[in-house]
Design brief:
Elements lengths: L5 H6 L4 E7 L4 H16 L4 E7 L4 H6 L7 E5 L10 E3 L5 H8 L1
Parallel strand pairs: 1-2
Antiparallel strand pairs: 1-3, 3-4
Helix pairs in contact: 2-4
């Protein structure tokens, strides 16, 4: 996902979205990568899972108040806008995130 397609993908879709805002150099982000990939597989067909490089998409990251990495936001199904983003602050395992999203 990029800054150019974020609004179209997320706001143009009625499905739920789980989005990780990351920085390529972030150690926590790098450790989350395999869990995030497994999460995408587990939630396929239920919740869309994406990631966006917040160092390249600084305007989007700023819109959502991203101040640390990784920052994870959840968008419920239905009509969405910037105010409907929910901060995910739970566990960082695939199963913890999947259970929370469901």
């Amino acid at each position: 996902m990029t800054a150019d397609n974020f609004d179209d993908l997320v706001y143009g879709d009625k499905n739920a979205w789980f989005i990780e805002f990351y920085a390529p150099w972030c150690g926590h982000c790098q450790r989350l990568t395999p869990e995030w990939a497994a999460l995408a597989t587990q939630l396929k067909g239920e919740v869309k899972v994406a990631k966006i490089d917040a160092t390249q998409a600084q305007e989007i990251a700023s819109r959502f108040g991203v101040r640390g990495y990784p920052t994870i936001k959840f968008f419920k199904p239905g009509q969405k806008d910037d105010s409907t983003a929910i901060d995910y602050e739970g566990g960082r395992s695939e199963q913890a995130m999947a259970d929370w999203a469901r």
